[in-house]
Amino acid sequence: MLIAEIFEIERYATKDGPGIRTVIFFKGCNLRCAWCQNPESQSLKKEVIFHKNLCKACGRCMERCPEDAVHYDEDFGFITDSERCSACGLCVENCIYDARAMMGQTYTPEGLFEEIKRDIPFFVESDGGITVSGGEPMLNTDFLKAFFKICREYGIHIAMETAGCVAYEKFEEIQDFVDLFFYDIKQLDSDVHEFWTGVRNEPILGNIKRLSDAGKRIIVRIPVIPCVNHTVEDQMKIYDFLKSLDIERVELLAYHRLGLGKYRGLGRQYKLESVESLEQGDLENYVSLGKKMGLAIRAGSI
To answer: For position 106, what pLDDT does the model report?
Structure first.
């Protein structure tokens, strides 16, 4: 049976494709971007996140855990060891202060469609649809193909957010179902890319070129991150590469630190904790540069 773990379903979204959209966030990612705003998306497994500000230190979570997976950390609080945790949910159920939450719910393609089916009237009214995100949804291509087939029967517009770091055969399996790709590009220098994300970028750049050659509709998103790709030289290299592709537009996304609390709730250190957030206005010089280089480009927000 095909299953996937979904950690969030966001309804009435308006920034991730045309019209009103339902955005489905899949767990599992093969990148480890230092600035990731959704660290709960990285593991393919369910995991428990802890909200320290809600905790009253009653210790019920530790007492009720059958795997002895909950421990107290002076920096983070009552953190769950993901290696020991069986995702039974007892610590969540027994937390009377709602300081613990299970990240991940198991769906079949049919079950996921039933979950989003009630949103179809909004899609019809606004020319909207669904957007699959993550994590990296391309790690679930068999699931996606089955899910997309059902969506197609109902005429639902399908968009996908991807970092593109998979074998191109994965794209070939699902690209005919996808109406719009949001494709992340982070760095042109593969060594720098590997340092900040854990993977080299050759397959990422190769895949977007092949998608472009196949005539797919693509919007490129560039998260602008201090220390990572914030120099004019960094951005010019990316723009020069994108000029060789057939893409609809480029969206620059300003770095922020809103994911910091999630890292703490998972018992992890946030590598960019000392780096200040950017404002959308900080991107205007890059927008002007991109326009001068012939790109359709605008500033957005992560």
So the answer is: 97
175 has pLDDT over 80: yes
Residues 64 and 200 in one domain: no
Q: Determine contact, residues 13/119, Cβ cutoff 8 Å.
A: no
Count of structural domains within the chain: 2
Q: How many CB atoms lie within 10 A of CB 75?
A: 9
Same domain, 200 and 88: no
Domain end, chosen from 73, 103, 133, is at 103
Tell me, what's the pLDDT at 86? Answer: 94
Whether residue 284 sits in one domain with residue 230: yes
Task: Please indicate, yes or no, whether residues 184 and 289 belong to a single structural domain of this protein.
Answer: yes
- What's the pLDDT at 302? 53
Residues 38, 19: Cα–Cα separation, whole Å: 24
Find tokens 């922020």 and name the residue: 256
Please name the residues in contact with 88: beta carbons below 8 A apart, sequence gap of 6 or more. Answer: 66, 67
Residues 234 and 146 in one domain: yes
What is the residue-averaged pLDDT of the chain? 96
Is the pLDDT assigned to residue 280 strictly greater than 90? Answer: no
Residues 158 and 182 in one domain: yes
The answer to whether residues 86 and 197 belong to one domain is no
Percentage of the chain modeled with pLDDT above 70: 99
CA–CA distance, 137 with 24 (Å, rounded to integer): 9
Q: In what order do the strands lie in the sheet with 180-184?
A: 105-107, 4-13, 21-26, 129-133, 157-162, 180-184, 218-224, 249-254, 297-301
Buried b or exposed e, range 184-204, using 16+ CB within 10 angstroms:
bbbbbeeebbeebbebebeeb
Say what the pLDDT of residue 135 is. 94
